[in-house]
Design a protein that fits this description.
helicase activity; helicase; alpha+beta; 3 helices; 4 strands; 116 residues; globular; 31% strand; four-stranded mixed sheet
Length: 116
């Protein structure tokens, strides 16, 4: 499947001692209805506590959660999101389960992971 992006609106970057995040809204050309997607690139500074990472992601992506969208009276949580980057977390360890559950339950209910 070939895909191209016709328009991109960069909403900005967020930086803190935990890491940084860049977010852009893109429109996919191949879909007639102008489907939008949110692309998020995350880089978490090494050796950060999971609670701090979760708070950083939650504060940064709140409008795209179901609760945040409801508070804003918008449907931002319905826009597909590609969340990628370097979390500097070993997701294979049991201690990372808290972050995985947060991502699945709050940010990305259809979470897919890659090992590459």
């Amino acid at each position: 499947m070939e895909c191209s992006v016709s328009q991109s609106n960069i909403y900005g970057t967020i930086q803190s001692s935990v890491g940084y995040l860049c977010l852009a809204e893109c429109e996919i050309c191949e879909i007639d209805n102008g489907q939008k997607i949110i692309i998020v690139a995350v880089c978490i500074t090494p050796n950060k506590k999971l609670d701090d990472i979760i708070e950083f992601l939650h504060r940064s992506l709140l409008p795209y959660t179901s609760r945040g969208s409801a508070l804003l009276n918008k449907n931002y949580d319905k826009i597909p999101m590609i969340l990628s980057g370097d979390f500097n977390v070993n997701f294979a360890l049991d201690k990372s389960l808290q972050l995985i559950e947060f991502l699945k339950d709050t940010i990305a209910p259809y979470l897919y992971k890659t090992t590459e």
